[in-house]
Amino acid sequence: MSDTGPNPLALGLEAERKAPPAALVVFGASGDLTSRKLLPALAALARRRQLSDAFAVVGVARSPLSDEDFRKVAADAVPDGGPEWDDLVSGFRFVQGEYGHPDTFDALQTTLAEVDEARGTAGNRVFYLATVPDQFSVVAGALGRHGMSRPGPGSFCRIVVEKPFGRDPESARELDGAMHEAFDEDQIYRIDHYLGKETVQNVLALRFANAIFEPVWNRRYVDHVQITVAESLGVEHRGGFYETAGALRDIVQNHMMQVLGLTLLEPPATVDAQGIRDEKVKALRAVEIMPVDEVATSVVRGQYDSGWVEGVEVPGYRHEEGVAPDSRTDTFVAMALSVDNWRWAGVPVFLRTGKRLPKRVTEVAMTFHRVPHLPFASKLARDLEPNSLVVRVQPDEGVTMSFGSKVPGSQFRVRSVSMDFSYGAAFLEESPEAYERLLLDSMIGDPTLFIRTDEVEQSWRIVAPIQEAWAQDLAPLTRYSAGSWGPREADRLIESTGRRWRRP
Amino acid sequence: MTEGLIGSWSSEDSSLPEVLGRLERLRREADRTASRAAVVNLVVVAAVDAAADRVVASVAGLGAHHPGRIVVLVPESPAGPDGSTGTAGAAPELAARIELRESDATGRRLWWEVVLLRARGPVCGHLESLMQPLLLHDLPVALWLAGGASTVDSPAVVAGAHHVIVSGERAAATGRSSVADDLAALAARRPLADLAWLAIEPARRAVARLFDPPERRAGLSGASVAVTGPPWSSRLLAAWLVERAGIDPRLVTLGADPEGAGRLRAEIDLEGRAAVVDAGAVWPAGAGGSAGPGAARAWLGPATVVVPHGGSDTPTLLAAALTHPGRDPRYEAALAVAAGMF
User: Considering only CB atoms, which chain B residues are within 8 Å of A417?
Assistant: First the structure.
């Protein structure tokens, strides 16, 4: 047996995708995102044996924690992580300090050198920015100044950035400039966890792995598209943050634009990082830019009042903790977009997102044209809706196709029925959480499900006129009751085109 | 055919997120043993807890033919036990029971869900907030107001339904005088199926047959009519006769079933000739009751016409209402007459 190269005894025993040796450096390690998402994702990867034996986590934060304290944070975040997690956590390290202070990065360099020595992480680095957004460029700049943004020979160095990528086109460009001063574009992994969801990726499988869908995925057959991202939750304890974001920045500019891009894109030659991202950019570029003076008629912004959600009486947005009593922040956005390309010309795309809606649901729905002629008595087909194809992203992940069917009986009554595919029923294996997939991809170096700088630019291009109109108060802020599907104006927006919102 | 329970969960102190989580867990387990079938969301609003048990019994077997999610909402009281109206953010007082039921009626094992929620306190005025998250996507929503048309305070509950089912007879039994107006208002908002209307369909058919061929209809508008039976069913039958045959309402009399057994009987006197339609018990005295065949005796033929019954027990009527949803202009016209003339 050779003593160099891959271990022949391990053949077939390794996970299909496994991270190489690396140190994951989490900035904002004592924060909510780390505890709720990153640590559970790491524990799941450890349980699936998709992390290298030479893997380490170094937390960085302002909080005065010791290595032991940080290990306790990790253990508490995943109390039932199993022996693999316990083993992993025992090697966690922590560096306390201000993000802009050189001492912090000196200490980090020392710690990483020790980790390389102790765990064999081979100088490979993944820096994860889980801090508040205004620290992104601070941390990136400091890493650059300390020479930590460039990989050593034979190793890699990447930086993962959480949304939001700026507050507007200008700040997005500034952030991009700051990041690029320290890192090359191929080192930057902009994360939008929606892209890590199995069902979002399934849009690609549905379209490009089946002969029956792609031929009808165009203006000849599709009447309109609806994308809904509904949340039943309010702002919880993030009122202060949400005041600076709103639904347009928090959801539309990133999650919805990504889902939109995947829905509208042309078939790529290959499903890889460049192929997918090139086509997404082309699709987003085809979205017609709304003139500022048309925003009032094509976009509805709303803010929730008090109401009842999931059986609980909830306060209005302006009474939430950390929210100004005269706030004009949008908690609901509905809009109609046009797409100027050969495939989608004339097909309106309706986007709708909001907080405190009746249920949590994300879906992409294609509604097809009605048949040109119904050869049945109209009263016998009054329950017939147009065909639709719905990709349910969450919850109850799956795909539903609805079509007309004869109702059993002597009459020729026709009504809509649905054919349902459910991930839970078809695949007994639990889907990995979005962060598991994306963390693993960042370590492996697969940027397919991360956002490229030109995608960010295109997303802001679409959203910017809306921001501008709202900043000039050219469109009213409408109200809706918590627990409803949004303001009446949103219904009017779609009903003015002869269509209506789906009930997801 | 076998039917049974394949999973259940209950709690006297729950929340909707917990119910959704438990439902999801039970569903995932059930998916591995049988196929899930779903064609409808049936939301039932029952007036009191005792009625809820009767309702659950009525709908339990329905799933084999109209599978889907059956959500039974029981608003027990509009205020909390201490009379409070609650505070924003406070958890509702919610008792929940989930049952996953299965059947092999179609030759393969299917399962469906029954969710019973008993709510107390102010949430009773906002039942839509409990209903909406429980609806299965892309399926029609049938709302059965088992406690009558006035059971639901919240218009949003009705607005969330594609069609509504009521039992007009039960609504009439509450002694409410405005039943016809209540139902007419409801029918104006959503397609309405009245179980009483479905129950008298065989009687209507039998009456209609009496007046074929056309020469038998000569002078029909001057006929006098006496209908006895369950209050709402007899009123509907009389209203239908008035509306369809143009009979002068002043010539119509209504009376109680002398035996009190829910027997519907119509006597039509046309120029001295009497015809009797005896439709049997169109409305069960209790849930789950069955009716025997009734008869229509025609004055121009020697034969006794047997009224094809079989639709007078609640599950069968519900099944009929679910099979043929949508507006029934004949019912709405009869309702208008019933509201305005009796």
Answer: 39
